[in-house]
Amino acid sequence: MTPLLSDLRVVEVSAFIAAPLGGMTLAQLGAEVIRIDPIGGNIDYRRWPLAPSGDSLYWTGLNKGKKSVTLALNTPEGREIAAALITRPDPGGGILLTNLPASGWMSFDALSAKRADLIMLRLTGSSDGTGAVDYTVNCASGFPMATGEGDKPVNHVLPAWDIAAGLYLCTGLLAAERLRARTGKGQEVTLALSDVMLASVGNLGYVADVQVNGTVRQPLGNDLYGAFGRDFPTRNGRRVMVVAISDRQWKAIGAATGLGERLAMVGPLMGVDLGTEGGRFEAREAIGAVLAPWFAARTLDEVRTAFAGSGVLWGPYQDFGQLVAEDPRCSPANPMFQEVEQPGVGRWRMPGVPLAFGAVPRDPVRPAPRLGQHTDEILAERLGLSSAEIGRLHDSGIVAGPETA
Amino acid sequence: MTPLLSDLRVVEVSAFIAAPLGGMTLAQLGAEVIRIDPIGGNIDYRRWPLAPSGDSLYWTGLNKGKKSVTLALNTPEGREIAAALITRPDPGGGILLTNLPASGWMSFDALSAKRADLIMLRLTGSSDGTGAVDYTVNCASGFPMATGEGDKPVNHVLPAWDIAAGLYLCTGLLAAERLRARTGKGQEVTLALSDVMLASVGNLGYVADVQVNGTVRQPLGNDLYGAFGRDFPTRNGRRVMVVAISDRQWKAIGAATGLGERLAMVGPLMGVDLGTEGGRFEAREAIGAVLAPWFAARTLDEVRTAFAGSGVLWGPYQDFGQLVAEDPRCSPANPMFQEVEQPGVGRWRMPGVPLAFGAVPRDPVRPAPRLGQHTDEILAERLGLSSAEIGRLHDSGIVAGPETA
Fold first, then answer.
1. Are B220 and B214 within 8 A, CB to CB?
2. Cβ within 8 Å of B, A 121-160
3. Is B52 exposed, middle or buried (0-12, 13-18, 19+ CB in 10 A)?
4. Coil, strand or helix: which one is A244?
5. For residue A180, what is the enclosing H or E element?
6. Fewer CB in 10 Å around end: N or C, chain A?
């Protein structure tokens, strides 16, 4: 069985998280994704964290399964080669994914003059034309002011807007390619990182809460809003998150802890209906007070045993080390993970794409390329250049292959 | 021009954020998305925050532009109608998007027996078969332990894993439908919320950092990791986030604040190369100490004026109220937003999809349906039922239309 998107050919000129994640997702679904970088690498090539070799774990993590071509993009000839790779007339090609300023040779107008049905996906910063990254979009989103205990804003560490943007780019690319397959029509598709944030804030009801109710959501520490959910320390210094959305999940907590009768007393005590999510939210402090000693008397393993098969919705807090050491879901016991050797870095548990397709077996997880690893191959196979011509391009510094140790 | 995905027909049986966001994104790209709910609504129908009417801002925010059909899914006849809607032989139909347990009538086997090329997208909780929601996946991710000041874990408030899952579902759906259009082959596509989390943790380098370096990322407050970025209080009690990834962004900070010469002294002072991201990260406390008085002496407006056109990468912190009141990007000045009347709720600034397609004008933003609003229309148009038959289904409680006030 051939991979799902194996007839798609995407060129990516990108850096950082969003566009590379979009391209990597397509590559992991079987598309050919050629990442073109300037010689020496783009601005994200040495981004921390680094392996002892100096190779970036960030860069290799976000570029798995791609092909890498390095060109002198500051020269006319380097740009011509890049444009030729983007616009050559493969049926599934003519697709550019970028988060770089699309002016000059890389503008939609310039490239679509070379291939009329070009599809160009372009991530920008802020919709007002200014630059933006995840952190400078996030601070404006309202979420840091509603995170933590509220004495001051708390930034998320997960680059959530970048991840969402990368996946919007995939969706947009497939939607645009679907139209092209039916009509022959290409187009430019743009996505502002600030709009990814704003659409999410709106979709989740925060804008309406301000406009309709005049309510500005306040921080609640680790408590869930609108239902019962909070964290509890265990006897051995660990912590767990426990959540009840449905009635069944709520009753499971009482049954598994043996505290059902005392929890039922919280309703009359606090004057709320514990049969509703809102009632359980309003009574969360009293519920927490009843439950906390149960967790404080048990180790994480004892909690795990008590909750196994109980229907309680819960999870342990883990730092990244505990996640890797203790969680079987983060290991090759999970078919999404494979231990793969990343050249220059070493072996680690690499994730494939989280989607599992019934009609297509999982591809082996492929490591990231070395920078420039596929320059010669792509120049020969895609552009039909001779060895002599490729040699000349190397000699004149227009292209580069992988660094040699 | 017809909307992008106007020939796609998706049935959604869902609750909460991820699957509804996936369906809404497709609807906003032009697909017909019929959300089927049990009579009275699914478990998310009254989720907080609520409007004064009791209508959920959460539910209406996540179901914009869909059609709503309510059926007695606990009866054989209700299920038969649902299965008929899912499997009827429209060319762009036969697509089910769900996050509910897919057993019995709603299993892939049962539905694909009625339509062989069925595509079923199914979001599950944890890859080990246990239930999970964003909060119980997030606690295990490592991120709460690396967020904030580190005295205890900090949960994110943004349901980031749900948002990513919803967008993976869109990507997976379009990829599966692309295969079906070429081969006639349907399939079940599954996605575990825990795998969305784990793939992200792996992609961003945290797993490799543990396995290759033995490093467990520690919390840094609001500082960026691996580059210069932190927050500063202003004279008027506001706060801004300032980031420098590139050299140009770094130099812009010195130029715009007039502190370039003193910032240059930080390099020799701290023994680092300020020409590198890593050096600026290592010297972040000293850099912050030089910059802080500049911000403390200025209001947010003065900072905004000083940074306008300067190339400094920055953003203001805003709570949700300030976002709505002060940020023109969160208003109809931004073409993504329109002021739309949501029946039962009121007018608010609704976001469309953040992707902007050059070949297709933006659709008007459509509000969420009232629960059951399209039951009769869909039964008549899609299943060809007569008014008499539809009347009988209402009388016997198998279907329901919208609640009447």
1. no
2. 126-128, 131-133, 135-148, 152-160
3. exposed
4. strand
5. helix A160-183
6. C
Q: Token pair for residue A261?
A: 């009768």
Q: Contact, B385 vs B379, CB < 8 A? A: yes
Q: Where are the alpha helices (DSSP H) in B188-246?
A: 193-203, 206-213
- Answer for the pair A400, A375: CB distance below 8 angstroms, yes or no: yes
Nearest chain B residue to A199 by CA distance is B351
**B residues 283..342 contacting A (CB < 8 A):** 311, 313-325, 327-330, 334, 336-337, 342
Q: Give the Cα separation of B172 and A28 in Å (integer).
A: 12
- A14/A11 Cα distance (integer angstroms): 10
In DSSP notation, B115-151 reads -TT-EEEEEES-TTSS---HHHHHTTSSTGGGSTTSS
* Reported pTM: 0.98
The DSSP 8-state label assigned to residue B56 in this structure reads B
Q: Is the ipTM value over 0.90, yes or no?
A: yes
* Inter-CA distances, B156 with A127, A160, B323, Å: 25, 10, 19
Rounded to the nearest angstrom, the minimum Cα separation between A329 and chain B is 7
Phi and psi of A188, rounded to 5°?
A: -100, 135
Looking at residue B404, its pLDDT comes to 67
Question: What is the DSSP secondary-structure string of B6-53?
Answer: TT-EEEEE--SSHHHHHHHHHHHTT-EEEEEEETT--TTTTPSSB-TT
Query: Which run of H or of E encompasses A174?
Result: helix A160-183
Could you report the per-residue pLDDT of B220-257, keeping only the tens digit for each?
999 999 999 999 999 999 999 999 999 999 999 999 99
Sequence-separated (6 or more) residues with CB below 8 Å from residue B70: B36, B37, B38, B39, B40, B41, B371, B372, B375, B399, B400, B401
CB B258 within 8 A of CB B293: no
